[in-house]
């Protein structure tokens, strides 16, 4: 089953994982910077239909009319991961703490650590999450194209998740 989320005419803010009703795309005031204090961040638990295990999301800033991407921290509990999904405008993933795992439909699984990033090009089915035995936090910068930022698909099987990493980018 595939679920598509659209921002539509009202250009609803979409975090890296799903629509957040009630938050509009940030409106820029000509000639001024926009501040997003921590007190205004949105915090929520990723829904069970899109995650295996617990994923806590903190939306840092929304997309706007000039820069069509949003930013969020996502903290995955040990063994937690997203469902298969793709981003029409791609996504950058930057590990803040722990070790991330991300896999693609070709069976490749990458592990990468703090300060390291992965670019997932537009339209590539992938998943990401923590290792089986430790929590992981990453920053995601997710683009929006034609009103969409994510297309959700089925959950990742335990077998796909536990595929040995083909590349480990960081040193322990």
Quick gist of this model?
The protein is mainly beta and 172 residues long.
Describe the fold and architecture.
- This protein has 172 residues and is mostly beta strands.
- The protein has a single domain (3-26, 38-168), classed as Jelly Rolls (Sandwich).
- Helices cover 2% and strands 45% of the residues.
- It contains 1 helix and 17 strands.
- It has one helix at residues 158-161; strands at residues 3-6, 12-14, 19-24, 42-45, 51-52, 55-61, 69-76, 81-82, 85-86, 91-97, 100-104, 109-112, 117-120, 126-130, 136-143, 148-152, 167-168.
- The strands form 5 sheets. It has a 6-stranded antiparallel β-sheet with strand order 4-6-7-15-10-13, with no helix packed on it. A 4-stranded mixed β-sheet has the order 14-11-12-17, with no helix packed on it.
- Strand 11 and strand 12 (109-112) form a beta hairpin.
- The radius of gyration is 16 Å and the shape is globular.
Layout of SSEs?
Layout: E1 3-6, E2 12-14, E3 19-24, E4 42-45, E5 51-52, E6 55-61, E7 69-76, E8 81-82, E9 85-86, E10 91-97, E11 100-104, E12 109-112, E13 117-120, E14 126-130, E15 136-143, E16 148-152, H1 158-161, E17 167-168
Parallel strand pairs: 12-17
Antiparallel strand pairs: 1-16, 2-3, 4-6, 5-8, 6-7, 7-15, 9-16, 10-13, 10-15, 11-12, 11-14
Quickly list its features.
172 residues; four-stranded mixed beta sheet; mainly beta; disordered N terminus; Jelly Rolls; 1 helix; six-stranded antiparallel beta sheet
